[in-house]
Amino acid sequence: MPTPRRHAAAAAAATLLALAALPLSAQAPAAGKLKVGLMLPYSGTYAALGTAIENGFRLYVAEQGGKVGGREIEYFRVDDESDPAKATDNVNKLIKRDAVDVLVGTVHSGVVAAMAKAAKESGTTLIVPNAGASVVTGPMCGPNIFRSSFSNWQPAYAMGEVAAKKGHKRAVTITHKYAAGDESVGGFKEGFEKGGGKVVKELNLPFPQVEFQALLTEIASLKPDAVYTFFAGAAAVKFVKDYAAAGLKKSIPLYGPGFLTDGTLEAQGADAEGLLTTLHYADGLNTPRDNAFRLAYVKAYKLQPDVYAVQGYDAAQMLGIGLAATKGDIGKKAEFSAALRKAKIDSPRGAFTLSASHNPVQDIYLRQVSNKENKLVSVASKALADPGKGCSMK
Ligand code: PHB
């Protein structure tokens, strides 16, 4: 006769066996906390961008009562300092040390490449809430890698078309020398030259340097019809101020993707007034969805939201869509991915879908700075999809 204790052990073993025999989908929803690894810049040039992304992410989770796909969230944070040299170590802190279920990051295109590589190797789900590097939704694309933001090409290409339509013929570009700057200039050049313009000189300096003086002097002597620039965060603040201080603002129109003036207008003040930029977000969209988001964000953080906050918010929404389809089980990769691939994501920017390479297909707005707002002017490019060159989903 087995003892009562043995009886209980045998019964437990039998239950386990029975559970193992059930198809996964018939099992109970995943339980316990879902570990979210936020790898973002919390210091340096892009510190404000990282904070806005985290704020947006947390706002969406809070709106769901602190749970996504039925799971409570536990956050793990790493400051990546926008430093590509530390990126592999940093992402491994989250994957190996903290054993996170999902990675959310980052801002800098040179750092995200290491994240995508680690996500591919470990199979960890990665949602990119900013960095526009083409590799993420190009050669490094994968079924477990998604972007809630943009590709560097998208706003840049749209701005190239806008500048050409304005009749500008000769443009000079100026940017930080790294993947984001190079790809942004490439996108602008493509749109601008298709429309009959010519990029006559490409100027750059290493990230995160902000000694612009010699380059501004060169722009003055080249006398182009227009200048196109990619700078963001603290570098964007300084560039816009230096451009005006050099006396160039009144003689040579300055264009850029909206990172030039998003989240920066308080600091840029009058020097940004009138600037035209292109981006997948704008102030004054005045849709019920965006108005509700902005109200909630201001209430939670006593700050105006910007494009980075929207991208963080949408990264959490995307996680929610995937988890709703898998009853909270992030391990069900195929179902998670399938749900996102057919989703219409109800973003404050306007609803968007994901392309075959998992990049947002979205409207790009033309905006103009007026009274410290990036006011909507028009839709520069409707439902613009990144070409996703080099992506084969395996
Ligand atoms: C990038 O490195 O991809 C990047 C950084 C900051 C931005 C936009 C893109 O605002």
Largest sheet: 8 strands, mixed
Beta-strand percentage range: 15-25%
Specify Rg, calculated over alpha carbons: 23 Å
Determine and state the CATH class of the largest domain: Alpha Beta
Number of domains: 2
Small-molecule components bound: P-hydroxybenzoic acid
Note poorly predicted spans: 1-6, 8-27
**Helix vs. strand class:** alpha/beta
Architecture of the largest domain, CATH level 2? 3-Layer(aba) Sandwich
Question: Can you walk me through this structure?
Answer:
The chain is of the alpha/beta class and 394 residues long. It has two domains: 34-150 and 285-358, Rossmann fold (3-Layer(aba) Sandwich), CATH 3.40.50.2300; 153-279, Rossmann fold, CATH 3.40.50.2300. The protein contains twelve helices and 14 strands. The chain has helices spanning 4-21, 47-63, 87-97, 109-122, 153-165, 179-194, 213-222, 233-245, 265-268, 288-301, 307-325, 333-341, and strands at residues 34-40, 67-68, 71-79, 102-104, 125-128, 145-147, 170-176, 198-205, 226-230, 254-257, 276-279, 353-354, 360-370, 373-384. Strands 7, 8, 9, 10, 11, 12, 13 and 14 form an eight-stranded mixed β-sheet that branches. It has a six-stranded mixed β-sheet with strand order 2-3-1-4-5-6, sandwiched between helices.
What are the defining features of this structure?
394 residues, alpha/beta, Rossmann fold, 2 domains, 6-stranded mixed beta sheet, disordered N terminus, binds P-hydroxybenzoic acid
Brief description of this entry?
The protein has helices spanning 4-21, 47-63, 87-97, 109-122, 153-165, 179-194, 213-222, 233-245, 265-268, 288-301, 307-325, 333-341; strands at residues 34-40, 67-68, 71-79, 102-104, 125-128, 145-147, 170-176, 198-205, 226-230, 254-257, 276-279, 353-354, 360-370, 373-384. By secondary structure, it is of the alpha/beta class. The protein has 2 domains: 34-150 and 285-358, 3-Layer(aba) Sandwich (Rossmann fold); 153-279, 3-Layer(aba) Sandwich (Rossmann fold).
